């Protein structure tokens, strides 16, 4: 488990996507934050983002290479996946990979005694009446503040509906980058290391690959430094 500043964490994630693993492998990592941090989606407008952040606190801020909303990393458990282009999951729709990963996450939380479920589409009352078409209502709003509102296929508390986990994705010719976050105050877990190990095994099972610890890849330090500088530059953060 590694710790980095916001720009460094985003740079490592993207570099791991560039250097995607072997065609049958999936790369999973959990990491932490050197300083209090917020990240926000690639397509979000930075002026609006800054209005949502605590006004009198010091923290890192970085635009992610993936989409989604603002994520508060001060009390979260952060992870990422890289799925190579050759793997069948790369061909799945965004909603399908989101659901598959979160099904695994919710399953492990339930095994550890947490009432976690995946948020599913809701049938409208009008559509389910006599002769109705069973229209499914899904979230269609622009990305906002991640843990304030649960979207379709997020992980939520079974009884209260409180959001537990969300994620964002980027798919390119190298593969799929999946960046996920679990809001720790929404669950009651003491052993997060045990959770992480179980989660990795569940993900490997869903992907049909073996679960094994792998050494840290030999990344090009100059390339990593350049990406870190890119993600910390005003041109990147203020891109929109």
Structure description:
By secondary structure, this protein is an alpha+beta fold. The chain has a single domain, classed as Bira Bifunctional Protein, Domain 2 (BirA Bifunctional Protein, domain 2, 2-Layer Sandwich). Helices cover 29% and strands 24% of the residues. The protein has 6 helices and 12 strands. Strands 1-2-6-12-11-10-7 form a 7-stranded mixed beta sheet, with helices on both faces. A hairpin with a 5-residue loop joins strand 10 and strand 11 (163-171). The chain is globular and about 40 Å long. The relative contact order is 0.21. Mean pLDDT is 88; it is low at 123-141.
Write down the CATH topology: BirA Bifunctional Protein, domain 2
As residue ranges, the low-confidence spans are 123-141
Proportion of residues in β-strands:
15-25%
| Element order: H for helix, E for strand | EHEEHEEEHEEEEEEHHH
Find the CATH superfamily.
Bira Bifunctional Protein, Domain 2
**Mean of residue pLDDT values:** 88
Q: Give the total of beta strands.
A: 12
The major sheet is characterized as: 7 strands, mixed
Secondary-structure-derived class: alpha+beta
Q: Kindly, what is the distance between the CA atoms of the first and last residues, rounded to a whole number of angstroms?
A: 32 Å
**CATH architecture type:** 2-Layer Sandwich
The figure for the number of domains is 1
Output the CATH class name.
Alpha Beta
State the strand order across the main sheet.
Answer: 1-2-6-12-11-10-7
Please, how many helices?
Answer: 6
Radius of gyration, in angstroms, nearest whole number? 18 Å
The level of helicity is 25-40%
